[in-house]
Amino acid sequence: GQQVMQIPQYQHVQEGEDFTTYCNSSTTLSNIQWYKQRPGGHPVFLIQLVKSGEVKKQKRLTFQFGEAKKNSSLHITATQTTDVGTYFCAGGAQKLVFGQGTRLTINP
Amino acid sequence: GAVVSQHPSRVICKSGTSVKIECRSLDFQATTMFWYRQFPKQSLMLMATSNEGSKATYEQGVEKDKFLINHASLTLSTLTVTSAHPEDSSFYICSAPGTASTDTQYFGPGTRLTVL
Fold this sequence. Notes:
The complex is a heterodimer.
Chain A: E1 4-7, E2 10-14, E3 19-25, E4 32-37, E5 44-49, E6 55-58, E7 61-65, E8 71-76, E9 85-91, E10 97-98, E11 102-107
Parallel strand pairs in A: 2-11
Antiparallel strand pairs in A: 1-3, 3-8, 4-5, 4-9, 6-7, 7-8, 9-10, 9-11
Chain B: E1 4-7, E2 10-13, E3 19-25, E4 32-38, E5 44-51, E6 57-58, E7 67-73, E8 76-81, E9 90-97, E10 105-107, E11 111-115
Parallel strand pairs in B: 2-11
Antiparallel strand pairs in B: 1-3, 3-8, 4-5, 4-9, 5-6, 7-8, 9-10, 9-11
């Protein structure tokens, strides 16, 4: 079945440094979604990418969808302590297959 | 955005008992809802798809007789963990597709189950 791999598993940065997490699928995706889960919380939808090569920005967050629609990345510029949490990518239509997540911790 | 609620938020039960978890879409109707399980520091694993008016479809490896799902109405799905054991202790989360884009999922706050 479809597999979604995400790296790194953990990332610790100093506040103000950039952060990137990468997602790779074993199959072509119709779309990819990104979620953020704060410690003790539930996943919250961030964005959905649909088009090949698509790039979307949300303030300091930049999301990319690969040309082959098999990989994606989330880049955070100048991290802040509020960015702490686990970021998941997920692929598929309705039935989402989640990546393992990247846990971001920040040293203030 | 759409709101999904879950009840209870936390439950502790003895081994061998059954626990029911409710998932409600508060301001929209959901003919389909999804149930996930998340072990500590791990990703979300889809357990089953709950379908209003018909049987749930279970993912491979998920026992349908142990995890009973009932989608009683367009706003309510329930997951019952029967004869719970300590290894069933986990974070159970439901989600429902958004109305604007059915690919977007709105997640409930989750239910943390601890089986003693």
